[in-house]
Amino acid sequence: MADNAGFGLYVHWPFCQAKCPYCDFNSHVVSSIDQTRWKSAYLTELARVRDESGSRVLNSIFFGGGTPSLMSADTVADIISTARGLWTPANDMEITLEANPTSVEAGRFRAYSEGGVNRVSIGIQSLREADLKALGRLHTVKEARDAFEIARNTFPRVSFDLIYARQNQTLDDWKAELSEALNMAVDHLSLYQLTVEPGTAFGDRHAVNRLPGLPTDDLSADMFSLTHDITEDFGLPAYEISNHAKPGAASIHNLIYWRSGDWVSIGPGAHGRLTLDGKRIETTCFSAPGQWLSSVEKTASGYEDRQTISPEGARTEAIMMGLRLTEGVPAEMLTGTRVEHLINDNLLEIRSERIRTTPKGRPLLNAILRELLA
Amino acid sequence: MTDLTHIRNFSIVAHIDHGKSTLADRLIQSTGTVKDRDMQAQLLDSMDIERERGITIKANTVRIEYPAKDGETYILNLIDTPGHVDFAYEVSRSMQAVEGSLLVVDASQGVEAQTLANVYQAIDADHEIVPVLNKIDLPAADVDRVAEQIEDVIGIDATDAVQISAKTGIGIPDVLEAIVTRLPSPKGDITAPLKAMLVDSWYDAYLGVVVMIRVIDGTIKKGDQILMMQTNAKYKIDKLAVLKPQMVDIPELGPGEIGILTASIKQVRDTRVGDTITHERKQTAQALPGFKPAQPVVFCGLFPVDNAQFEDLREAIDKLALNDASFSFEMETSAALGFGFRCGFLGLLHLEVIRDRIEREYDIDLITTAPSVIYNVYMRDGSTLELHNPADMPDMTHVDHIEEPRIKATILVPDEYLGDVLKLCQDRRGIQVDLTYAGSRAMAVYDLPLNEVVFDFYDRLKSVTKGYASFDYQMTGYREDFLVKMQILVNDEPVDALSMMVHRDRADMRGRAMCEKLKDLIPRHMFKIPIQAAIGGRVIARETLSALRKDVTAKCYGGDASRKRKLLDKQKAGKKKMRQFGKVEIPQEAFINALKMDG
Ligand SMILES: Nc1nc2c(ncn2[C@@H]2O[C@H](COP(=O)(O)OP(=O)(O)O)[C@@H](O)[C@H]2O)c(=O)[nH]1
Ligand SMILES: C[S@@+](CC[C@H](N)C(=O)[O-])C[C@H]1O[C@@H](n2cnc3c(N)ncnc32)[C@H](O)[C@@H]1O
Ligand code: SF4
Ligand SMILES: [Mg+2]
After folding, report:
1. Which atom of ligand 1 is nearest to the CA of B22?
2. How many CB atoms are located within 10 Å of the residue B382 CB?
3. Which of B67, B408, B410, B480 has the greatest number of CB atoms lying within 10 Å of its CB?
4. Which residues contact B381 (CB under 8 A, 6 or more apart)?
C-alpha cells in the first residue's frame, strides 16, 4: 500500500493566538515563543527522521497546527530547504501551510511564498459575523475575505475551511452561505460538520445542555447531503467525506493519509507512519510543547513512542482511511469481511475492482466500519 | 448442658425496617455475648448482599447467656429469620424450632403487611408472643395508637407491650426480662432416645456443610453416630458447637438446646430441612412430620453475555446450588442467546440475589430473560404439561386450556393512596377479597395471578404509594384463564428470549409497551427495523425504529488514525455484549429493561 501512495512530511506547530472553544487539536496559547530554539529543534528532528525513512521521493510538506501562520517565515523557509536537501523532491511537490485569516498573518503570506510554500489552507470557518463570534474566532468576515484575496494572488493553490451544522443554522442558511463560499472558491474547499469534542469548552457546555440549537440527526443528515449535491453541481465534488475539489486539485498531502502512504512527522504530538522491511511503523511525538522541545534538545529525538502495527491493525487503518475517499479501496482489501450485505443494502458499491461508499453509505461511514471491522 | 427451665428459644418477627436486626444487635451486645470492640451493625446478616440491601436472606442463630433479675442465668437462643415473602416458607420452618416470638412494630409506623404475614406464622407455630414497640425515641412514635392497632388488627393483647428504642438502648433490659418471664421454656425428655430437628443447613468454605439443629429429646455429643431419618443417611458427628454468633465448640447438647454440627456431609442438597436426627443405635420411635421442600415459583433463563463464559456459569450455579436447595436449574439453549440455564427461584428477590451473586462473586455478566411462572397446560389428548418456559409452549391448536398460579395478596396502605392501589390491582387482573380499615390505613386483600406480580408489581406499588404501602402474599392454587403466548419479532425475526405468557385481555397493552420499550433500547441501525408483538401469526402491536441517517467523522487525518483504530477495537469488544438477531444487534440491557413495565 505504501509505495505508490506517496511520501510526505508533516510539521506540527502547536501554538495559537487563542484557543477556539470547539478545538481539540494539540494547540496552546503562550505569551512568548523562542522562534530560534524551535527552528533548530525542527531541523534536528528533520535529520533524524531522514535517517529513519531513508532516501525517498518527497511528494509533500504540510505545516499544520495549531496556527502555522504564526511561524516566522524564516523557520518555514529553512525547514523547506533542509527537507529538499534531505529527500528527493518530486517535481510537483506540494507545500501547504494552514493559515488563520487575520491581517497580521496575511502580511506574512508573501514571505511564506518566497520560502517555498505553494498552497495555503485558510481557516475561514464561517462567512457570518455572528457565527464567527460564536465559534470564538478572532477574525471578521471582511478580514477573512481580504486574507483570501491576498492568498489567491500570492499562492498557486488556495483552499479554505468552513464549519457548518452550527448552532441555530437552518438548511437554507447553510445553502446560502455555501453558495457564497463556492463563488469565492478557487479549486478546493474543506467543509466540516461541527463536532462537539469532549474536553473542549463546547464539550463541557454540551454536557450540561448549555449548547443549544445544534442540528437534529435528520437536519445534519440533510445538510450533509445538500453539501455533497451542491458542491458536485458546482464542479467541486467531494473526493473525501469533508473535502471537495476540482478534478486534479485534491490535496496531495492528505491523500497520502487516506491512501495509507508513508509520512514522517515532526513537532509536538505529531504521528507518523512508515513502512520499513514490510512492517508498518507508528511513531508518536511528545504532545506537550515544552516536553517535546527539551526531549529533542537533550536526546536528539522528539519521539515518545515507536511501535509496529500488526498487519490486522494496518489493514483496519487502511480500510477506515480509504473508505473516506470517493475512490474507495481496492476490492481485495475487504475480502473476508461482511461486505456482501452492505453492497446488497446499497451502502457500498463495487466499481472497477474498487469498493467505495454509495451516496447513501457515505454519511453512515462509521456504522459501515463497525459492520466491517468491529 | 442446660436444664430446660433455664432455656428460652425465640425469634423476632417484624416488617422490614422496623428494627429487627438492630434489636438483635442490642440483645447480643448488652449481654456481652460479643465484645464491644468486635461489634458491627447487623451482626447476624453476614452476606454482603444482606448488608447492602438491609435484608435478611438466610436464617441465623445466636446463643445468649443472660443473668436474669431472679439471680439465675438463662440461655436465650435467637433464631433470626428472613422477613421477605420469597423466604416465607423458610421462616415458617424455622419457627417450628422455637417456642416464642418478639413481635417488633415500629411505633412511628404501625402494623404493616409483613408484620401480619410473619405474626400469623408465629401464631400458626403456637408461639407465645411478646409485642415490642420500637423506635419510641422518634417524635412520631405513637405507642397507644400502635398498641391499639395490634389488638384490633392482629387480635393479641398489647397492654404489656415492651416499649423500646433499639437504637438508643431504652427498654432493652425489659425485653430480656420479658423473654425470661413471659416466654415458655421448651419441653423435652432427656432420658428418651435422641430426637433433633434439622432446622437449616448451609455450606461453609472451611467446614463444608453445616447443619443447625434443635434438640427435642435426648442428648447429642461429638463423635455420635447419627441417622437422618428421611434421607436414611448415616454420619459421624465431627463437630458440635453453638453460635455466639461465632462458633464455640460444646461437648454436648440436650433437650431444648440449639446448635450446629458438621459430619462430612457433601452437599446441602443431601440434607432435608425438617428431617429428624436420631442416634443410629438407639432410634426415636416417632419421627417429626417433616416439611415439604420449598418449591421454586418463578423461572427465568440466565445466559452469559460472553458465550465463552458458559462453563464458568455452570460452575457458579453448581456452587450456589450446593448452598441453596430451593434454587433449581437445568440447561437451556436459546437461538438468540446461546447456552445458558433455566433457573427456578422462590420469588423475584431470590432471583435477584442469585443473579447478583453470580455476577459479583463469579464475575460473569448475565442476560436475564423474562421471568415466568409455572403454567399447567392441559392438552386436547388428555395429557398435561408443566410449562416453565414460554419457549416450550406447544401449538395452541393442541391445547385445551391453561391454568395459572394465583396468590392472595395483602396490602396495607394509607387511605390517600388506596384508589391507586385498587386500580393497580384491578389492572393486574386482581379480584378483591376483602377491604378493611385499621385506623387511617386500609387493608386490601386481593386474589391475583402470580404472573402479574412477578413483573415489577412491587416496584409499581412502591411508586404509586410513594413507598407507603406494604405488601405480602401467599400462593393459593391454580385457576384456568385465557392465556396466550406473545412473541416479539425484531426485523421479522422472533426473539425467543422475549416471548412470554400473557392474558389475552392484557396482551395488546403489554405488546404495545414492549414494542415501545424496545424501540428505545435498540440502537438505530442503517436500515429501519420493524418491532412487532404477535400472538400466533397475528400481529397485535408494531413500532418502527427508523434508520440511522448520519454517523460519520468529519475530520480524520494522519494524526487521527491511531485513535480511530483503537476506537474500532474497543467497539469490537463492545459487540460481545450484543446479541445478533439476523441483521439486528440487540444490547444485553435491552432484555432486562424491556421487561420493566411502566404501566
Ligand atoms: N430512631 C430509631 N431508629 C431505629 C431504631 N431501631 C432501628 N432503627 C433504624 O431503622 C432502620 C431499620 O432497622 P433494621 O434493624 O435494619 O430493621 P430490620 O429490617 O427489621 O432488620 C435502621 O436505619 C435502624 O438504624 C430505633 O429504636 N429508633
Ligand atoms: C487543524 S484545524 C485548524 C487550522 C487553523 N488553526 C484554524 O483554526 O483555522 C483544521 C480545520 O479543522 C476544522 N475543525 C477544527 N475543529 C473542529 C471541530 N470541532 N468540528 C469541526 N471542524 C473542526 C476547522 O475548519 C479547521 O480549520
Ligand atoms: S486556531 Fe485552529 S488550532 Fe488554534 S485553537 Fe483555533 S481551531 Fe484550534
Ligand atoms: Mg434486618
Report:
1. 15
2. 7
3. B410
4. B398
The correct answer on CATH 1.10.10 for the domain covering A311-374 is yes
Nearest CA in chain A to B576: A374
DSSP β-ladder status, A303-309 and A329-330 = unpaired
Q: C-alpha A25: how far from its chain's center? A: 11
Q: How far apart are CA A321 and CA A263, in angstroms?
A: 14
The confidence score (pLDDT) of residue B599 equals: 37
Kindly tell me the burial class for residue A146, based on how many C-beta atoms sit within 10 Å of its own C-beta (0-12, 13-18, 19 or more).
middle
Question: Is the sign of the CA dihedral B142, B145, B148, B149 positive or negative?
Answer: negative
Helix (H, G, I), strand (E, B) or coil at B183: coil
| Distance separating alpha carbons of residues B459 and B455, to the nearest angstrom | 9
CB of residue A20 inside a 6 A radius of ligand 3: yes
Q: How far apart are CA A260 and CA A265, in angstroms?
A: 14
Which mean pLDDT values do the consecutive 10-residue runs of chain B (599 residues) have?
A: 92 91 91 73 61 59 93 94 72 88 96 86 93 97 94 91 96 97 96 94 84 96 95 95 90 96 88 92 91 82 90 91 81 85 87 88 88 93 93 92 94 92 94 88 93 82 84 89 95 89 93 94 94 95 96 96 93 77 83 63
Centre of ligand 1 to C-alpha B14, Å, is: 11
The answer regarding whether domain A7-257 maps to CATH 3.20.20.70 reads yes
The candidate with the shortest Cα–Cα distance to B458, out of B470, B476, B446, is B470
The upper half-sphere exposure of residue B181, i.e. CA atoms within 13 Å in the direction of its Cβ, equals 12
Q: List phi, psi (to 5°) of B556.
A: -150, 100
If we measure between CA atoms, which residue out of B530, B520, B540, B526 comes closest to residue B587? B520
Grid cell of B437 as nine digits: 380499615
Question: Is residue A102 lining ligand 3, measured as CB closer than 6 Å?
Answer: no
Residue linked to cell 416450550: B392
Domain residue spans of chain A: 7-257, 311-374
Q: Which amino acid is at B224?
A: D
Q: Which residues pair with B378 in a beta bridge?
A: B384, B401
Q: Output B441 or A210, whichever has higher pLDDT.
A: A210
SS3 content of chain B, % helix, strand, coil (to 5): 30, 35, 35
Place of cell 401469526: B537
pLDDT tens for each residue of A3-62: 579 999 999 999 999 999 999 999 999 999 999 999 999 999 999 999 999 999 999 999
